[in-house]
Amino acid sequence: MTSFPIHQTELEKKMIPLGDDNKELASDDGFVVPKTNAFGHTFRDYDAESERKKTVEEFYRMNHINQSYDFVKRMRQEYGKLNRAEMSIWECCELLNEFVDESDPDLDEPQIEHLLQTAEAIRKDYPNEDWLHLTALIHDLGKVLLHPSFGALPQWAVVGDTFPVGCAFHESNVHHKYFKDNPDYNNPDYNTKNGIYSEECGLDNVMMSWGHDDYMYLVAKENKTTLPSAALFIIRYHSFYPLHTYGAYRHLMNEQDVENLKWLHIFNKYDLYSKSKVRTDVEKVKPYYLSLIDKYFPAKLRW
Ligand SMILES: O[C@H]1[C@H](O)[C@@H](O)[C@H](O)[C@@H](O)[C@H]1O
Ligand SMILES: [Fe+2]
Ligand SMILES: [Fe+2]
């Protein structure tokens, strides 16, 4: 177990308790958080006996063993070239039709369903924040890394919760025990609370485990999206449950991160709890999303 003496940065001391920071942004929402997922379990229950449990646990075993500092560095360099494809945002949504996420205990539907379910749910409650609708639609597009034309990366290098590398793995990471076989686990440069980072260095300076979040952030940024900084933050850290849901690693945040985290908390509710077996009528909502894509992105993007 990795436990540390309780010490808080000055910024951490000023932070509002988890879950209370989005009151000012909260809408008069009609969204009802369901008590159980499509399989009759509570959401994100990684211990519940279900058909998905084994697949999900094996996923995290592979993920925790292989996501090391060196691996992340190599992947960032390689995929940062954006030389794999040229296509529009919508074309990418359609590519996701064939993939099911093996890390997810709550959903076994193709990913395009999840994108539309999230976007439509948040659109209902925040009708005027069109940037948030589009952010929801694209937040998981990085899962295209599973596709053969993107190198058909294994699931452990694409999906699942994310965490910083280069410092100790916090115990709030699901299935934490599998980190023991990660090459960084016993490396003294990487296994202290701060590791290679300094307090309040800002998440932008932190190397996160490699996957769909960081990749889609890169794609959006390099293709010069006009989405606001909160949108890029949501895309980049939406799988960072250890931080946004369990409050770990907060000592690495700076003031800007604290601001952006408010929107991520709002987003997370829709990302997680809109997962269901109810399908969206793609053709019906497509024109609306095409108009948003046109507003915030070039017609073709480099991937
Ligand atoms: O299983 C899920 C899924 O892969 C999501 O796309 C990701 O954002 C979550 O953090 C993860 O736990
Ligand atoms: Fe995701
Ligand atoms: Fe998602």
From TrEMBL:
UniProt-listed Enzyme Commission number(s): 1.13.99.1
Top-level EC class as recorded in UniProt: oxidoreductase
Gene3D superfamilies: Hypothetical protein af1432
Any single GO BP term: inositol catabolic process
Residues that, per the record, bind Fe cation: H114, H139, D140, H212, H238, D271
Family matches, as InterPro entries: Inositol_oxygenase
Co-factor(s): Fe cation
Pathway assignment: Polyol metabolism; myo-inositol degradation into D-glucuronate; D-glucuronate from myo-inositol: step 1/1
GO MF annotation terms: inositol oxygenase activity; iron ion binding
One Gene Ontology term, aspect cellular component: cytoplasm
Key words of the record: Ascorbate biosynthesis, Cytoplasm, Iron, Metal-binding, Oxidoreductase
Chain sites annotated for binding substrate: R44, D101, E102, S103, K143, G160, D161, H238, S239
Note on how the cofactor is bound: Binds 2 iron ions per subunit.
Catalytic reaction equation(s): myo-inositol + O2 = D-glucuronate + H2O + H(+)
Location in or out of the cell: Cytoplasm
Family in the record: Belongs to the myo-inositol oxygenase family.
Protein name from the UniProt record: Inositol oxygenase
Organism: Nelumbo nucifera
